[in-house]
Write a structure and sequence with these properties.
Creatin/AminoP/Spt16_N; 7-stranded mixed β-sheet; aminopeptidase activity; Creatine Amidinohydrolase, Chain A, domain 1; Xaa-Pro aminopeptidase; 416 residues; globular; alpha+beta; Creatinase/aminopeptidase-like; 2 domains; protease
Length: 416
Amino acid sequence: MTVLDRDTSSPTPSGAPSGAPSGPGAFEPRLPAAVLLELQERVRARLAADGLDAVVSDDPEDVAYLTGFFHHPCERPVAVWLDTDGATLLLPELEREHAEAQHAQARLAVYGEFPGERSPWLALADAVGPAVSGLTVGLGPAISQRRWTGLRTAVRVADWVPTELLGEVRAVKHPAELALHREAARITDVMLDAGLELVREGLANGSLPSEAELASHVGKVGTATMYGEHADVVVVSPLAGGLVYAGANSAHPHGLPSAYRLRPGDTFMLSLGCAVGGRFVEGERTYVLGRPTDDQRRYHDTVRRAQALGAQVLRPGVTCEEANRRCLAVIEDAGLGQFLRHRQGHGIGLGMHEPPWLAPGDDTPLAAGMVVSNEPGLYVPGHAGYRISDSMLVTETGAEPLTSHPRDLDSCVVEL
């Protein structure tokens, strides 16, 4: 086992392709060391408030949040431990160079291989030392039974307490994180424009794209924008792209893009998003290919009204379940409640879906600095689905959409 002190120097762009922009005009998607240390202090303050001495998590999003280290999760354990003395990052030897290149803000506790002749968790025990035997330690909720067994066998503490505190702290974004969300929103709008342009080109040349072709195209546009305009790219999955469906296929939420080729008269949905610096944004619009029918206009207009009210009710102090109830009531009051399939929305951050949940049963009060989706939808079997989504930043006085593509039906009609 090797333990290395954390590197508190400013991150240097690494991993960007040859020819990637650099210099004063290039957007930097990695949080500087000072911000990461501020995030650690936020969690430390919450530990004290909750009566905990430390917290440990193997959730890749928690690891990235506290240390700035992004990785591809696999069978080899990677975990972060945070206490009053600092952060410790457990990782295999083959990830060491990646953590160093990303200037991970933690001591590195490195083990050789998995499963190995010695438990990887003993590397963490060596790093934090025997003094932790008297600590009460919060345990992140994502850890598997197998890893939990290895952790508690190797690291002996006074008590392990399951906790959701990391997710709750992550819900309110640091201003530096919000800059990443805003850039992701800008690129999401670029992707929406690119999808519409491909449809218009298909109309012009007599060959409309398939759902899969549309999805591939917008994903390439999103990633190319990052690699072309940013000083570095923090690669997460998914980096850019989304769900594209048309006609009756769009009546199935979270349906995967197929070989179905768009046809005149179709309702089609571009459900897109991307991650900049690991911070996600989603933006979804529903379009009509040609002159809308009365039914298409009724469905689209109803969802648009629900989404508009949903944006108005998002403000500090309003509970998530209350915002959801008021938003979806617009669809129910229009006599279309039978076509509801899901909640108003969810939190967005290092995860595309994360707490809080704008849904029945979540009484979390909204707070300034939260980013949530506002995405009411209705789904008519055999016909189509209609959903409009913006990633919303909760402010001191209300909420603002980060994505800005037009939402009304007249702006969402593709003329034949």
